[in-house]
Structure formats: C-alpha cells, structure tokens
Amino acid sequence: MTTSRDPESVSCIELGPTKWTQLEPYLAEIKKLEEEGVDDAALAFFEALLEDSEEGAIAPGDYKAPLGTTTMSVAPAWIGEFGRQGAHRKGEGGRREYRLYFGEAPHDGRSAVAALFAWKTAREMKEQARHQTQSHRRTRSKAHVKQTTQIGKAQSIVKRWATQESCTYRILRR
Fold first, then answer.
1. Are 45 and 58 in contact (CB under 8 A)?
2. What confidence tens digit (pLDDT) does each residue in 95-141 have?
3. What is the pLDDT of residues 48-83, one digit of tens each?
4. Are 115 and 23 within 8 A, CB to CB?
C-alpha cells in the first residue's frame, strides 16, 4: 500500500542540490554559539547538513514541515525545521534542542533560506511535556509559546528577505 504525502509537507531540499542563502539572524545566532564553544558538535551537524543538501537531496524524515499553520499572518512564509540536541548544559537542566528554521524561495525550485537558529532548553522541554500530559490542553506551555514565536519570527524574516531581494517566497497553504 502506497501512501502519498501532503505536497505541503514536501520541501525542495528533497529534490536534489539546494542553493542555500544564510540570512543575518541565522548567522548571528550561529556566531554567538561558536563563541561559547559549548555546542560545536551540534553546530557542525547543521553546517554539514546544509553542505550535504547543496550536493544532493535530504531525506523526508530529516526535517519537519510545514510549521506555523496557526499563525495569523497574511501570506505566511512556508517554514520547515531541522532539529538536533546539543551538549549537556548543567545550568539548563540538560541538553538544548536546537532548531534551524528555513523557508524556500521558489523562483527556481531549488533555493532555501536559513532564516533563524533557535533553541529550547531541557527545562523548557520537560515543562512542555508535563504540561501536555496534564489536563492543560486549552492552555499553552511557555516552551510552546516560545517556539510558536520563533516560527512566526522565521516567517517574518523570510518575507522581509524576499521583499529586499525582489523575489518570491513559498507561501504556506492552510
């Protein structure tokens, strides 16, 4: 039995070589983390991921998309994410969960935009898991709100970049 995927969940990064544009908000966060020197392995993972996708395709299970389906923005940018755990951070209760949020510039069908690099701490993730298992389904945990905000920020970054570059961006279809 063959199951077809929702086309909205498929990124151009699955189709073969991808041209990446790394935007300033993404680069600024990467630089801060490089200066800390704590999560070099996680940073190397993301760097290798982008390099690999410039040479070939990324597998469907290597990213999540689309994100931001609940944002109220007009013509929201389609956003995907890569995730990876970082090194143990004692003051944060464990490992950070890093996320590289990316959009697409479909003018050529092969361009992606690294928009934002963000994370949640281990404490935030544990609080979110507790919140979800308790009967708080109508409210959102702080970690959930933080991630939703990060996704909205990534959408804004992609839209602003596209305007500055006078190009199109992939719009999220809801």
1. no
2. 888 999 999 987 777 899 999 999 887 777 767 666 666 655 556 67
3. 999 999 998 898 889 999 998 887 788 999 999 999
4. yes
- Could you tell me where the beta strands, DSSP code E, fall in the chain? 19-22, 64-67, 79-89, 94-104, 111-120
Rounded CA gap, 60 and 55, in Å?
16
SS (H, E, C) 133-171: HCCCCCCCCHHHHHHHHHHHHHHHHHHHHHHHHCCCCCE
Q: Is 69 left (phi over 0), alpha (psi -120 to 50) or beta?
A: alpha
What single-letter amino acid sits at 76?
Answer: P
Distance, CA of 156 to CA of 158 (rounded, Å) = 5
Distance CA 49, CA 62 (A): 10
* Encoded amino acid at 117, one letter: F
Give whole-number Cα distances, 15 to 19, 111, 171, in Å: 12, 11, 18
Give ∠ CA 36-100-13 in degrees, rounded to 5.
140
The identity of residue 50, as a single letter, is L
Rounded-to-integer distance, Cα 37 and Cα 109, Å: 36
pLDDT greater than 60 at residue 152 = yes
Mention every residue, 6+ apart, whose C-beta is less than 8 A from residue 71. 148, 151, 152, 155
CB atoms within 10 A of CB 73: 12
Distance CA 78, CA 159 (A): 10
